Task: structure prediction
Amino acid sequence: MSDATQTGAGLAHVTSPLIDVCDIALIDLDGVAYRGHQPIAHAAEGIGELRANGVTTIFVTNNASRLPEEVAAQLTALDIETRPAEVLTAAQACARYLDEFIEPGARVLVVGAKGLRVAVAEAGYELVATAEDEPAAVAQGFGPDLGWRDLAEAAYAIQRGARHIASNLDLSLPTDRGFAPGNGSLVRAVVAATGVEPESAGKPSPTMYDMAVRAAGATRPLVIGDRLDTDLAGARAGGYLGILVLTGVSSARDAVLAEAAMRPHIILENLAALREPHPAPARDAAGSWSCGAAAARIEGGRLVLTGSLSDIDTVRAAAAAVWAATDGGITVDEASVPHFDLGYVS
Result:
């Protein structure tokens, strides 16, 4: 990638507009393209500019409750015209992932919504309703109407030897009212009953990213997400350039405090910034990191900032300073890292 320079676990230095450095953009949905049923400012604009620049856009979501056709219809209604083939859900990935663990055509107990049931059936497996049917696997995905009986049936099947495959392990789900329990929270209830940790096809595994990149024959992928623990951890795990946009779950402060495996390569306030380059902070001889008008350094284990807390460059400088110190074995006092005045706050 000639216009993007990555250095270890730090931020990437991109000298050209970000829309120029990729041939495919793997875009998360909740918190990036929309929030619940509401649009996110500049999302349609930024995605439109990617497409106008010839970039393939694939929406890669850990949501397993809906069909790609339903997702595409929602995006189109929010001025992001989308075909079902441009959507890759965790339900589809989960169904494809089953063949790693069970025989073709085997019985599967699906605990989830229509999207997961359809995907598993289309993959050629026999859907069953209870643990009494002796399923070879339990496929678990999010569904807003799931209840105790559904989770109990999954637990019974797993205790009898069924493999537990989760569509994703997201603990929370962003909605237009705030954050609600996600599939990972429901999965933890089953794990608490069985003591069996599930396999997962969803992010932070890079499995879905790999599927999309291979299908498109792309060579310069870019991941765009709002969660450090799923979207960006998946980007790091797969070796993909990862963008964190501050319109969803993870905040700017979260990014500054992120462990190496979850760090973004690029931090943007929103998708309008895709038309801009992404300067990486530079370190001076005194150990201070500067980016634009902002600067950051670590003194006595505390972060010291120069710059506005509403300036994205301050976030980038802070991240560079904290990451370098942490990677060098210095413990940074988390209380010294402020809450920045940008991004989405529930």
In short: The mean pLDDT is 94. The longest helix spans residues 312-327.
